[in-house]
Amino acid sequence: MKQFSRLLFIFILYLSYVNADSNLITDLCKHCDDPKLCLSSIQTRPESGEFAATTNQIEIIAISAASANASSTSAYIKEMLSREDLEPATEATLEDCQKNYQDAVEQLDDSISAMLVDAHADVDVWLNAAISAIESCSNELESGAGNDAELSQRIEWFLKLCKNALVINKMLI
């Protein structure tokens, strides 16, 4: 019986710890334009279970989610560029987008580095730079050169992830 009581106590402590983290994530995400995306993008990251105890840690996870999305989209663009049936204008647009995504990944890496030293103003600058780079890609695609529904969706998703991270960061400044 004593063993069972200890296990029950440990389990209750664990649940309160998990709920505290979950509550903190929920509290931060409710300020975002897309709270559901914010919650899911943070809670589905492998590191969120053991690493999401503070607002700074949650911010790092949010930026990591945006970075993972950017890396995936960069790979998607690279795959599109390997097609031989691309028109020159489409190819030029995709090459520009590829470079912008590579820049965005670097800027998000810089954001994480800035978060590690609590330089929240720098995080703001790097996140806005990443957003600007991908908005440039979006504008080129919308002008008609290389419009691709999946790429447009990926861009929209990336921008939302970055804006969620930006909202969380502004709460830390």
From TrEMBL:
What keywords does the record list, in alphabetical order?
A: Disulfide bond, Signal
Asked whether the keyword Ribosomal protein is assigned, the reply is: no
Q: Which residues form the Pectinesterase inhibitor domain?
A: 20-168
Which GO terms of the molecular function aspect are on file? pectinesterase activity; pectinesterase inhibitor activity
Q: Where is the signal peptide?
A: 1-20
* Any Pfam family hit: PMEI
Q: Which InterPro entries match?
A: Invertase/methylesterase_inhib, PCW_Enzyme_Inhibitor, Pectinesterase_inhib_dom
Keyword ATP-binding assigned:
no
The record's PANTHER family line, in alphabetical order, gives: PECTINESTERASE INHIBITOR 5-RELATED, PECTINESTERASE INHIBITOR-LIKE
Protein family membership: Belongs to the PMEI family.
Q: What is this protein called?
A: Pectinesterase inhibitor domain-containing protein
Write the lineage as a comma-separated list. Eukaryota, Viridiplantae, Streptophyta, Embryophyta, Tracheophyta
